[in-house]
Design goal:
The protein is α/β, with parallel strands linked by helices. It has 21 helices and twelve strands. It has three domains: about 180 residues, no CATH class; about 120 residues, Translation factors (Elongation Factor Tu (Ef-tu), domain 3, Beta Barrel); about 180 residues, Rossmann fold (3-Layer(aba) Sandwich), CATH 3.40.50. The two termini are about 45 Å apart.
């Protein structure tokens, strides 16, 4: 056999030793994940320690942050943490993940391969079994990484949302699939070499093993980025169904992994209980924003609604409404679980007493929402309001709970593209509309928003009576850049990316748009100069700066590149980019 491994005949004592090792190494593999969580806690502790030592006590009566002591070792440690995190967060290339994800993924793969190979001697079957059981030991963690709830142990220990953890879920899934492929391939090779293929192919353990690896192959294939973009619903539905069905063939495949399967069942049950607790029904109105392909949903909140406590930047999962009275049948339950889309809460629930959800119409659920809105509007007469429909929301979720207090920053730069403003606008409003004795201590905020046409800002700037134009010198105005291209196609470019940023010479005349500026905005034509905007913010700031962005990948990557230049110069920067991958 290759690599020094052979089909060996074992004594009873050697078989007992093999069984012991087959129990030991997967347990090491599973519990070693605690080391990752310990690393996070140490990182948080050191970051907190370095930040406290690097800051002088505030001297302003309004509590403004103090100046940084540029030469202290604590300051240098803080800068080292920031630079390391920034370097690790850089994308390898579009859709290929970040440097940190690749390093972590390769390191974990090497570790699991070591645990699969170590102390197997020259025993081919021992190595084959070890591949399978080490892979199975990672399945509970894999399912835990997929939990949406902020009460997930992984989210609590890492302070990351499930959107941020999705990359770890994907990477671990690929590692598990790789190890199980080795397990299946090595076993099939053994059957062929030993002349046992025709006999063993009829046994239950082999049949269930082949079913399991086939299901995993389907899961891995439908999870590929190109297929997710082609049809997200196929990916999502396949994932949900097969992730549950997979446990059955694995249970009958071999008894040694049943403990891990029980752990998975417990995780699934707890996750469903938490999700049911987070699922609420509301009544709201749905409509298409005139002159756009945007759909908005407005949900009034009563005094006892949980939604009043939701924070800026959080998002919910909206189950596709049908416009008819809900039922409690199995199909309704399926719709509530599988036909969902993430929507950022675009309002300040406690202040506005409503939830506002906005989305752009593309395909799938968003197209169904637009069709429903048009059908409902066609049924109402002149002067009538849109009828309320039953809406199911699950949440809130998101990483905004871990966004620091932005009032502690000297400058805040907010950048949004298209409907990415549904994330940024509530954060902006939460800063500038803050009321209290410490209002003068609030940071200087610059909010840049690129849209195809001014009509797409209607949800954020409702019309009012009187003169609505605002001078460019007014404070707390949103800089609206209208980037509408010529031609009829305003949906997508050839690469599938939203068209948000185009050169000024490609724009249509904007005199009509410029004349419709509303209070709180300054309207400009063309592509925003991301580099110049970032430089202005940092040049005119001597303290720490927060940069938050949400929009097309090309925009956020350009902004990150420009902010990175200032990170290299030692500036204290908080960076957050909100994205939805699946």
């Amino acid at each position: 056999m290759a690599f020094g491994y052979e089909f060996v005949t074992l004594t009873e004592l050697e078989k007992e030793q093999r069984r012991y090792l087959l129990g030991l190494y997967p347990n090491i593999a599973q519990w070693s994940a605690l080391g990752v969580f310990v690393f996070f806690q140490v990182y948080f502790l050191l970051s907190w320690f370095a930040e406290r030592l690097a800051l002088e006590r505030p001297k302003s009566p309004f509590g403004r942050p103090g100046k940084m002591k540029s030469q202290t070792w604590a300051r240098k440690l803080q800068q080292a943490f920031q630079r390391a995190s920034w370097w690790a967060g850089k994308s390898i290339r579009g859709g290929w993940g970040t440097r940190g994800e690749w390093i972590a993924g390769l390191a974990w793969t090497v570790w699991l391969l070591f645990l699969s190979i170590h102390n197997t001697g020259n025993d081919y079957l021992h190595l084959t079994k070890r591949f399978g059981i080490v892979a199975a030991s990672q399945l509970p963690l894999h399912y835990m990484l997929a939990m949406k709830s902020p009460y997930s142990p992984v989210q609590l220990l890492t302070r990351l949302s499930h959107e941020q953890l999705k990359a770890s879920h994907q990477i671990l899934g690929r590692i598990i699939y790789f190890l199980l492929l080795l397990h299946a391939s090595f076993y099939l090779n053994f059957f062929v070499q030993a002349g046992l293929l025709l006999k063993r192919i009829r046994d239950l353990d082999v049949i269930t093993g082949l079913i399991g690896i086939t299901m995993l192959s389907i899961l891995s294939t439908t999870a590929l980025g190109v297929l997710r973009r082609w049809n997200y619903r196929v990916f999502y539905t396949t994932h949900i169904i097969l992730a549950g069905l997979l446990l059955e063939p694995l249970f009958f495949h071999v008894k040694f992994i049943r403990l891990y399967l029980i752990e998975i069942v417990v995780i699934i049950i707890l996750h469903e209980i938490i999700r049911n607790y987070s699922l609420q029904r509301y009544s709201g109105a749905i409509s298409v924003i005139p002159g756009t392909n945007l759909v908005e949903i407005r949900i009034p909140l009563l005094s006892l609604n949980k939604g009043l406590k939701w924070e800026p930047g959080q998002h919910v999962y909206l189950s596709r409404p049908t416009g008819i009275s809900p039922s409690s049948g199995w199909y309704e339950s399926f719709v509530l679980r599988c036909r969902v889309n993430p929507f950022t809460i675009a309002s300040l629930p406690a202040k506005d007493k409503q939830l506002l959800l906005v989305t752009r119409t593309l395909n799938g659920n968003t197209k169904s929402l637009a069709d429903l809105a048009r059908s409902l509007s066609a049924e109402i007469g002149p002067g009538e309001t849109s009828p309320s429909i039953s809406i199911a929301l699950e949440g809130p979720y998101g990483a905004s709970a871990h966004i620091p207090n932005l009032s502690k920053f000297d400058r805040v730069l907010l950048v949004a593209g298209g409907v990415g403003a549904t994330f940024v606008m509530p954060i902006y409003r939460n800063i500038v509309e803050h009321e209290g004795v410490f209002r003068p201590a609030n940071p200087r905020v610059r909010f840049v928003w690129a849209v195809r046409k001014l009509a797409e800002t209607q949800w954020a700037f409702p019309s009012s009576d009187g003169d609505e134009t605002e001078s460019e010198d007014a404070q707390n105005t949103v800089e609206i850049y209208i980037t509408r291209p010529s031609g009829a196609n305003l949906q997508m470019d050839d690469t599938g990316e939203d068209i948000e940023l185009v050169e000024a010479e490609q724009l249509m005349p904007l005199q009509d748009e410029m004349g419709k500026a509303r209070k709180g905005m300054t309207v400009r034509a063309g592509r925003p100069d991301i580099g110049g905007i970032a430089d202005e913010v940092f040049i005119n700031s001597f303290g720490n700066v927060a940069v938050l962005a949400c929009g097309p990948q090309a925009m956020t990557e350009e902004l990150r590149e420009q902010v990175g230049r200032w990170m290299k110069e030692g500036r204290d920067i908080y960076w957050h980019c909100e994205t939805f991958g699946w």
